[in-house]
Amino acid sequence: MKIQVKVKPNAKQQKIEELEDGSLVISLKSPPVDGKANEELIKLLAKKYQVSKSQISIQSGLSSRNKLIEIVN
What we know:
Pfam families: DUF167 (PF02594). InterPro entries: DUF167 (IPR003746), YggU-like_sf (IPR036591). The protein contains one helix and five strands. It is α+β, with helices and mostly antiparallel strands. It has a single domain, classed as Conserved Hypothetical Protein Mth637, Chain: A, CATH 3.30.1200.10. The longest helix is centred in the middle third of the chain and has 14 residues, at 36-49.
């Protein structure tokens, strides 16, 4: 399964919003430094979809706010 995600780092609280087109807007507490926001994103998605962190990968947008995430079941 592939998901379009827009990340908002340095937010006051973590939250996941689902848009009508199926993409997600995810607010993260972590700053976008040294991959911390990406780590938090993967952890949050693993919890939401109840899969292990190793089943989630960032296909594109590693250093961008807009990312393409792949979840392998």
